[in-house]
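Give me the fold.
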Amino acid sequence: MEAQPRKALGLSALATPLALGCILALAVSELSGTLTNAFLYATVATMWGYARELSTLITGLAFLAIALAAQFRPRLLDARVLLAVAFVCLAGMVPLLLAGSFLASPVLFTVGLVLRSVTRAVTILFVAYCLLKLPDTVSVAGVVVFGMLIDNLLAPLMRSSLDLAGAVCVMALTSAAVTAWGYFKARGSLAELGNAAPASQLAAENPRSFIRSSHALFYCILLFSVGNGYALTFNEVNHAPAPLSIEGFLIVVLIFYLLLVRDRRQEDTLFSFSVLLFMAGLLMASFVISLGQALLAPNVLIHLASDCFNVLVWLVIVGVGKRNFFAFLPVFGLSFCMKSLGTTIGAIIGHGSNDLMLADPSVAQAITLAVAFFVFAFLWTNFRDFSFTDTIFGVEHLELPQQGPLETVGLEERCAQLAREWGLTKREQEIFVMLARGRNGAYIQEHFTLSRNTVKSHIKHIYSKLGVHSHQELIDLVEGDPAPKE
């Protein structure tokens, strides 16, 4: 499908309360990751280095669980339950990390990192639904870029002014604030998702409105993340990614691009830009290794490439979600799962390369060149004809099911009134509400995990007690005046 014309981003689009809230939320999320690398991973590396990879892997598994729940059991994604899980994990994270550091206990510290990973997944889930509420994907790009800019400007100050305890407290407080804000913004969307059929069922009926889990999009995200995970380990300082200062200003260039350009294939342009920066960074890293100097130019290039790719991923996720609300969460969960998995694999390769560098720099140089060649070869052979823009516009629109004239709360009150008058049982009342919303027997069977015959029996009893003979008569009864009970 042909990509549609895009409008340029105006500053007014980022001045709304929702956009400003999303910018701050993303900035906090990015800053939390920066502090984790600078303090938490640096600390645990001296006790048990693989705790870093385990934490990232757990984050990926949490995103995978979100994708699977949306695909098969959307009712599990209850906003209140997710909020409770996030706050319980935050409450346990702080004492475990502090105690693990004080006692030099890798077990306590690792458990604290795992709890932090679960909280991070829930927080980003809530923020993702906030981004979906923005008017267009161009606004999404601006919000994401400004969020990263704030992170890059504040990160040096945070690294220089905080210790481990301060970093943990800042992460806990800011994460709690963003999670609570995101919950109030996202709970309606999650409730809508929970009341709908699973994405797997909708995809079977509307295959062109969904992206398969085997789609090239996810392999591309995985591959790029492997390279990025490897690059994060280059020039490590005290077991943490090398601190940068100039990158935040380079992001301003990307901001002005988004503000000024009108590009029909914005996603593909960003991908090409990301790959070029990434390849330049890896090649320069090989050159720096040969010099034996800790120059940060490769880190700047690779980190900026990663930032561009993050903008691209958000554009794709939100772009798909705006075309099909029910495809949003499966794509979101699987995309972030691939990012976490790829980063874990790349970091393991990178740490091994760092160990080899101490013994023989030429081996580390060879590994860096091999990673660059592998990434380039895989992209060239598998993604020459792949288009992120076509991926978005290839998803056919699937509109939200429309509610009847009654609002949801009013409908439930009306159904409860009729249920009392006509003597419906508790289960019959629950099914009655679903019928009044326009749901069919197959949906009710899936929603309540009942057999087909059980649902048919309940519907038959409801029709009999209410004195109606069809689904439409039942809806007319709910929308009209109550009939006197005989």
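Residues 261 and 433 are 49 Å apart (CA to CA).
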